[in-house]
Amino acid sequence: MSQAQVDVAEVHWLMEMLQTVDVGLVVLNCDYRIQVWNGFMENHSGLTPRQVRDRYLFDLFSEIDEDWLRRKCDPVILLKNRAFTIWEQRPYIFKFKNYRPITGSAEYMYQNSTIIPLSDARGQVTHLCIIIYDVTDVAVSRTELESMNGRLRQLSKTDFLTQLFNRGHWEESLIQEFRRLKRYNHKSTLLMCDIDHFKRINDTFGHAAGDVVIQAIADAVRKNLRSTDIAGRYGGEEYAVLLVDTDLEQAKVLAERLRQSVEALQINYNDQLLKVTLSLGLAGYQAYMTEHRQWIEAADKGLYQSKAAGRNQLTCYIDSV
User: Fold this and answer.
1) What CDD domains is this protein classified in (predicted)?
2) What are the start-end ranges of the H helices in the chain?
3) Is residue 209 domain-shared with residue 296, that is, in the same domain?
4) pTM to 2 decimals?
5) Is residue 149 part of a domain?
6) CA distances from 26 to 20, 100, 301 (A)
7) Is residue 260 included in any domain, yes or no?
């Protein structure tokens, strides 16, 4: 075989590799007109090399942010150094549909890319080669893992039955607010409330009915909260609400509204209407308190005064200290 035949054979298999490699290969001149367009790009764009040859890249693909891509490519031409893009910064350069069955949840192909300067015999950069890598599998796995971790973090601080904060997370929030009040001497109020005669509901209708009641009260708590209030399930049938930047008089209005809304509830369980009421206790933050538990104890005392006085009422606990 002659040298010419060897050279032709090498060019042939190089072209074959260029067309079949599982990455996108795009060569642009310095005016961003397409010179090379391999099989990967043809398959995903539906455009043949002949259709894109010498076409201005940004005319063909309007979804590409021209300013952004030029900021990536111009230094490659000027400095003769490679540049890279990753899907975490921008999901894709070319908006190709995702057809992989394993990552079917992704509508578009996530892409990483490498931008390489191509020089002539004199060392002048005349072209850019953009290599497109399909990283949809990695991106989908990462985003699903992050989403799952987010759900786990949410579950770790949420009460399963009521979807309010669980006691641990709620108390951590209370501690943070207590420290803030110690430092800045603002006013906040703590509300503790408890379902009246809850044991009677469980004994009469069963624990499933009790769960329905607990959920209904939690919904009522949510509906009566402001965006700054922090509510949690403190115990079995006991709820706690931190009323941030709220003095005792303002808190009384909010707590009474909650009491009345619960009193008006008609909770349907197995075609039976269940009626329940709340007993509530309020306590404002006091400067003498040295730890958050004193605040909880003060609100609890107000709650049990409401219980002792006949239930379905609100008591503001005023410490004599």
Assistant:
1) GGDEF (cd01949), PAS (cd00130)
2) 3-20, 39-45, 49-52, 57-60, 66-79, 136-156, 167-184, 198-205, 207-223, 248-263, 292-308
3) yes
4) 0.60
5) no
6) 14, 22, 74
7) yes
